[in-house]
Design a protein that fits this description.
By secondary structure, this protein is an alpha/beta fold. It is built from 10 helices and 6 strands. It folds into 2 domains: 20-49, no CATH class; 52-238, Rossmann fold. The strands form 2 sheets. Strands 1-6-5-2 form a 4-stranded parallel sheet.
Length: 239
């Protein structure tokens, strides 16, 4: 008997709620129309323009060939200051924007599905956070991105396979050599999981790549336990 009042309640309050709290573009804060996508048209256009071209992606992938850690590297778009992508990633990392992170993961997943078509992968490994940072943030942004990727690439999410027992300072502002020193030895395969790593091919996922030091450190750790191949994937590439 309470169904009709509930329906009337929703019918009356939903429009009022939409007027009081209209959907906003998560990148610039502009009000979105009811039928708008996740971003306003202007930010969506800027985000599309920031995607790596086929030639830029080819050069990026070629740059890691012959590396003893990463076998391949795929990135969705360029990370520019004061850009919609920067706003989205900051929202994900510092403002609890989990839905934004999953959406970015879906876009990265589309790239990975196209470029790795036919490849056999063991699973997805998000770059782990140290437990103190995880406790502070409440979630791992790389794991959120991995959830979005997984909705496109139906691979096992191996988010407990790699751990980060040593806390590191933020990579922001560090030069390339300092970044590599900062994350050297920061990761390890979870005790007892070495057999799952041996002979496997893994997609290691992160939010932003600058020098690739973090992805390389993760890949090097996995290969030390017998991984056959490690591919890095990230939403953004810092220029």
């Amino acid at each position: 008997m309470a169904v009709l009042p509930d329906l009337l309640h929703d019918w009356i309050l939903s429009p009022l709620r939409a007027l009081a709290f209209p959907p906003l573009c998560p990148a610039c804060g502009r009000t979105l129309a009811d039928d708008s996508p996740a971003l306003c048209p202007g930010c969506q256009e800027l985000l599309e323009a920031a995607r790596l071209s086929a030639e830029a992606l080819r050069r990026l992938r070629f740059s890691v060939r012959g590396d003893d850690a990463l076998d391949d590297l795929l990135v969705h778009a360029y990370f520019e200051r004061n850009s919609p992508l920067q706003a989205l990633i900051h929202r994900l990392k510092y403002q609890g924007g989990v839905a934004v992170g999953r959406n970015l993961g879906v876009q990265l997943g589309g790239l990975l599905a196209r470029e790795l078509s036919g490849s056999t992968c063991t699973g997805l490994i998000p770059v782990p956070l140290h437990r103190a940072r995880l406790r502070e943030r409440g979630y791992n942004q790389a794991a959120v991105i991995a959830e979005g990727v997984r909705s496109v690439l139906p691979l096992p999410l191996l988010d407990a396979l790699l751990v980060r027992p040593r806390a590191t300072e933020t990579q922001t502002g560090l030069a390339a050599a300092a970044r590599r020193r900062n994350v050297a030895g920061a990761f390890s395969v979870r005790a007892g999981a070495e057999a799952l790593v041996y002979g496997g091919t893994f997609l290691i996922l992160d939010d932003v790549v600058t020098t690739g030091a973090t992805l390389e450190a993760c890949a090097r750790t996995l290969k030390a336990s017998g991984a056959a191949r490690c591919v890095g994937g990230a939403v953004a590439l810092a220029r």
